[in-house]
Amino acid sequence: MKALTIWQPWASLIVAGAKPYEFRGWRPPASLIGQRIVIHGAARQPTQSELHEFRQILRWGVEEASNQCLHYEDAEPVLELTLLGRLPFGSALGTAIIGEPVNGFTVAERFGNRPKAGTWSGEANWGWPMLDIDPWAEPIPMRGKHYLADTEPFIHHRRADRTGPHGDRQHRRHRSARQLSRPHPARPIRRSAGPRHAHHGSKDGGTSDPWAVLGFTPSRI
Predict the structure, then answer these.
(1) d(CA 76, CA 70)
(2) Could you give the 3-state DSSP secondary structure of residue 57?
(3) Which of 54, 58, 118, 123 is deepest in the core (most CB within 10 A)?
């Protein structure tokens, strides 16, 4: 499965259903339209200028969020976690299906915006719809790339690397100790399950197994 690396908090905003489009200067490959990809939050930290921008969104609410093509109700908790420094970085966060790309001007108009020509004519002239979001319960550490890349070669936290002489039991014990010694992993907060951003999960109603999505079957872990 391919992974798309996105700066934070934009990756978490997508997984939260707050950012329905990922903007790029190029169309997605035709072979990936309609296909599920992994949403990967980059290791890069937000700059002070970006943090100021996020504070402005929280200050001015729906109007400023719409200028960023965000749904404010879903974006608010993610941006609050961003300012607290509690977002996961360098991790796979979930999956989404890439829809048919839309011109950036069209996306802006859907949010009631009329941006200047230069704003959407370069790096953000294509909006990739992020559909059928499947957020994962826990982020999975993973290296990213500047382009769509296969997930397996870049996973650096395989289960096999974390098991000791006592196998999975020791792994679970050590992992629990690490979790207790650090803040609760920041995950986008979903306040409601309305039709626009309802969680779809797997066919049986549960969330898909992230390790299976990434290509790790029990015989390979």
Answers:
(1) 10
(2) helix
(3) 54
Whole-model pTM?
0.71
Q: Where are the domains of the chain?
A: 2-216
Write the pLDDT tens digit of every residue in 106-145: 998 899 876 544 455 555 689 999 999 999 999 999 988 7
Model confidence pLDDT, tens digit, residues 64-79: 999 999 999 999 999 9
- Per CATH, the number for 2-216 is 2.30.130.30
Closest C-alpha to 70, from 23, 28, 37: 23
What end-to-end distance do the CA atoms of the chain give, in Å? 17
DSSP letters, 149-214, are EESGGGB---HHHH-BTTBHHHHHHHHHHHHHTSPPPP--------TTT----STTSSPP-HHHHT
